[in-house]
Amino acid sequence: MSEDTPTAPLPPCDLAIIGGGAGGVLVAMQALRQATAPLRIVMIEPRSVLAQGVAYATTHGEHLLNVPAVRMSAFDDRPEDFLDYVGATTPPGGPERASLAHAFIERRRYGEYLRVRLAEAIAARPAQLQVVHDRVAELEPRTDGATLRLARHGELQAAGVVLAVGNTPKPLPARGAPQLPEGRSLAAWDFDAVKAIPRDADLCIVGSGLSMVDTVLSLAENGHAGTIHDCRGTRCFRCRIAMAGPPPSTPPRCRRWTCAHACASCVPRRKRPWPTACRGSR
Ligand SMILES: Cc1cc2nc3c(=O)[nH]c(=O)nc-3n(C[C@H](O)[C@H](O)[C@H](O)COP(=O)(O)OP(=O)(O)OC[C@H]3O[C@@H](n4cnc5c(N)ncnc54)[C@H](O)[C@@H]3O)c2cc1C
Question: Among the atoms of ligand 1, which is closest to the Cα of residue 188?
């Protein structure tokens, strides 16, 4: 793989992959594995490290995969490949393979796994992969492919193009949200900013999916003691993280428990610590 910031015009390529997150890296690996001729593949990714899109850019150990290791292989024909990787990279004396298989591994290790397997695919195949650290600003379809316009590196002609640009955070869907002063509203995927929230801050988390679980896990890891409101749809639940004190006298309404509910009211009834409850929802 050549990974550089070219100054000369980019030569045409057989395949351009726009985005070097998990999806882009998976496509590159498959293209490299299946290539029988010296294809030229170009991946365009602004970040300096590959396979670090929204999910796997986190450096925080409490952010886990939401699928057990045994089901996270990058390859159909090697269904236990991720488990093999985890087994091989777990220090001696760590959990046995049987328990790793059903474990929810740290997400940062999945990005590492993809980078290792990409390097292996490059070494083994006749195709070439060039990574260009830039952003594609424009794409113009042609009859024989497409012209890509990069922000800093001019044009690239490609016979085929894969769009692997991932998801972008949505703006907070609430009137007045854009007027919030800087620092008062954070995207859940800004993992470091979430970690830096003061321990005694009162918070409202908008949404109750797995990014909410990530956020609560990070807050709990920090020993957060403030009140957390968890809003989904038109409902708003109020709870306090269990370790900060006794559960509130009026438990929040709990149609289908989520992490935040489990922290305050469900834990005493379910008799299991809140991190287990959080992990159970993945
Ligand atoms: C918090 C969170 C946790 C998740 N956990 C899991 C999980 O445990 N298991 C699972 O299977 N899935 C999980 N997912 C889903 C996960 O996002 C996908 O599995 C996978 O990461 C998506 O890969 P992607 O390549 O589509 O996007 P990303 O990995 O986000 O990559 C997109 C890339 O495109 C680049 N890009 C964007 N625009 C341009 C442009 N114009 N030019 C060049 N490059 C560009 C970006 O820089 C980025 O690197 C999670 C998602 C989130 C948000």
Answer: 1
